[in-house]
Amino acid sequence: MYRSLLERVVKQQDRFRMTDNNTALKKAGLKVTLPRLKILEVLQEPVNHHVSAEDLYKRLIDMGEEIGLATVYRVLNQFDDAGIVTRHNFEGGKSVFELTQQHHHDHLICLDCGKVIEFSDDSIEARQREIATRHGIRLTNHSLYLYGHCADGDCRENEHAHEVGGK
Fold first, then answer.
1. 107 annotated among ligand-binding-site residues
2. Distance of CA 67 to the CA centre of its chain
3. According to the annotation, is 152 in a ligand binding site?
4. Around Cβ 25, how many Cβ atoms within 10 Å?
5. What are the binding positions for Fe cation in this chain (predicted)?
6. Which of 27, 39, 92, 114 has most Cβ atoms within 10 angstroms of its Cβ?
7. Which pTM value belongs to this model?
8. For 94-141, what is each residue's pLDDT tens digit?
9. Is 121 annotated as a binding residue?
10. pLDDT by residue (tens digit) across 56-97?
């Protein structure tokens, strides 16, 4: 009985998420299609916070979805144009995507393992506005990427090197 109740709750949550995703796509002026819904679903998984098109495609394959890599790229570009996702071009040139968030944040990126840490700092934001104003620029948008190496001994360098070597 407990399992049945839990399954019903999970199905209901999935239906709410699907409805929210349908609404989000329609608000963005996009037609609701299965590939768009599935890609949005994967982007909402916490582990896929900063994900490349290739990694998103692999996740879809793991889920048993038959969505081509070209479709993944096309949908991500449409999502970027519609403001659903934000594209980042971190060191190395590969684009990664994250769902667009309400609050601005910056990124720390480990050059060894690729770990991405998001942070916000009001003093940095204020300083950037001051600099822009001093130079006669009215800021409309900006991004800050800080690159370095994990210093806490918790670097996933070996794990990452293994993944890259295995491709």
1. no
2. 19
3. no
4. 20
5. 104, 106, 125, 142
6. 39
7. 0.69
8. 888 999 888 888 899 888 888 888 899 999 999 999 999 999 999 988
9. no
10. 999 999 999 999 999 999 999 999 999 999 998 887 778 889
